[in-house]
Amino acid sequence: MAAARAGVLATVVLFCATPSAAQLPTITFPDTAVGAAATVKCPTTSVSLCFGSSCSASGTVQSVSGPSAPFSIGKFNLLSNAEFFAGNCEAHPVTLPVTVGPGQILAYQATFAPTSAGSASGTATFSTSGGTATVPLSGNGIPARTDKGAIVPQINSTFYVPGNFLNVTYQTRRGTLQGAVDLYFVVVLPNGSMMFLKPDGTLVTGYVAFRTNVTVTDGTTGLASFPFPVTAPFGTYTFAMALVYAGKDPTNSSNWASAVSTVTFTFTALSPTQQSIVQSRGNPDLLAVTWVDEQSEKLETWIYLSGPPTLYRFGNGMLISQGPASVSTGGTPPKVDPALFTPQTTLQQLRATFGNPTSISPLAGAPEMQAVTYAFGLTVVLRNGQLSSASTLRP
Length: 395
Hints:
Strand content: over 45%
CATH class of the largest domain: Mainly Beta
Helix content: under 10%
CATH architecture of the largest domain: Sandwich
Structural class: mainly beta
Radius of gyration: 30 Å
């Protein structure tokens, strides 16, 4: 006699290789609007199969028949216990037939996509080396809600450099909304990953609303104002916001009480003004950069010695002044890229760009500071391993 069960924590179901079939726990879907779809996947144990007590045996899942529409199953993956309960549902895709070994779980995903309102039921039957097992499926289709509002994120710029402040507000419109909603704020990072804003202001990877059970009114609300985190990766970011009917699953689009609205911006080392100067004139012949972390202030001086000689001064990427520059004699100017010097600059990055420095020495009376010098005319001062200042000269 062989054994199978629907998940590690579910009741063990024994079945023999006979025509009689064992019934596994029902896959129950949340109420789902007509035209939408709901999915059940790991770590929900009703969408898993393994063999033996505590998944200690092996067996083969040969095939599956059913279910009929509006239900479907697929995305079979052979997972370890840890992968299943960690939610790594698609770590190891497989096709049937598949042998499930000791300590392994065959996970799959079940979908309910109602085309009409009302309750629905179905079954899926697995053929295995231990016999057959039937999985009931149950769901309820509900009319799609049509009452909608709107929420739109707003920011004070589309371009930020270290030292700039980010101000975030959002505008809401009630529209035809009936009842309360939950508010979601999502940050899409340059690598494409999503972070959700929690009520306490922190960001997490899982779905969470930053405000719940809100009655929407027409107006604009302040959300946050802070210096853009200087350790954040450079690149393009997106803020996205949406209203979801109060208490409903945000992963199901039928529960959205508004369209998803977005605003996109860029965080980079140089402002558009600075980028334009570099594009037209190249890297400055000489420069000086100072970063004051306590004040979130970056001051820069760029000097061009020809065409015509010009001195530019910037504060947090904004052009403060420009005028004629004095042309001095000396060696060849270093002409280094000003984008290399940001609050994120480290000794490792300097070495990756310029090679090993000529010298590294601590500053007298300031053990947290060290001067990194290059013979071609560059000195960088690091504070606790991060940029404090940088300057160039004709060697």
